[in-house]
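FAQ: What does the model actually see?

It sees only this:
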Amino acid sequence: MTHRERLLRAARGELVDRVPISPPIGFDPIAWDERGEETRPGDPLWTEVARLCAEHCDCLVHVPAVGVLFDRRFLLTPTKHIERLPDEREGEWIVQRHIVHTPRGDLTTTDKHQPGIGTSWYTEPLVKTVEDAEALLSVPYEFVPPDLTPALQYMERVGERALTEVGVSTPLVSVSRLMHFDQFLLWCAIEPDLLHRLMATMAERVRIGLEYVLKAGVGPSFWFGGSEQATPPMMGPVMYDDFAVRYDAPLMDLVHQHGGLVHVHCHGKVRGILDRLVAMGADMLDPVEPPPDGDVTMAQARQLTEGKITLLGNIEFRELEFASPSRIRQLVRTAIAEAGERMILYPSATPHEKLTPKYRDNALAYVETALEYGGRATQ
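And it is asked to produce this:
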């Protein structure tokens, strides 16, 4: 089977020749095809693992050029109202500032990142007060359809090398990102009506963009930020229904109406929402974290979902970073045995920085063990 066929069949619950293996590092087969060992110069340990990934791993890759349709930072405010200031340097940090111009005054937000580290921090949220939220809602909305030709060309280049996905920021993820998270949780109790107005606004804007992408033939898998902000200990299942299911379910239905796949990403304690994900028709779920990081094993998740969701997991990043290769081999064997036929071996995260020798050893053990124990018969 090709990598794409193997992943598609696994996502649909069909038999495959072997367990699909998601890379234990950030790996794009197209970048590797183009640049090979120059993909990550200065990181020879990454290159060593990448050679094995290029031959054996089954990649879920995000389609570029569609991110503007689902940007979680500004409530999908039209870009003509958003001003990005010149980047500034503060010691080791690169500081990015944005201004959103609204009819009720300007709103500002600040993000910081360090070169060579693949993540960022927002140090000043866009929404700090109720008045800020009302100002953001006052900005007139219009949908400006982007040119999706680069996205379609990327999908053509990927071909059978990987399964292409579109990242979709859900309403809850997007609204919680507008403010400090403790403020968001407080507002769930004291400003629920305002939060629902923000999320309903985001949901409608996401729906418009999602429908545009689906009609253009971009896909076939859609990676939904799974509203992990609404799982325990932050919220319980009832609040998850109110703040996540209410808005996510119609968007997932839209994907299915166009023949797409729904891939839900949700860290943490998901045991209490597995029945909700089944009801919403999720096709895939990652990373299915076991205790103590999460609250469900692969065997328990398989039972609770009644085999209706393809489980991606459940090798924890901290294990890959700190455990021994023998421990990783044991975890991989257990995951494959417990998950049954409908699974994709998947790490909970991949490194944001250069690989350590221990991570290199464990990443190699992860792939090699999956190849040894993941063989299956095709239909």
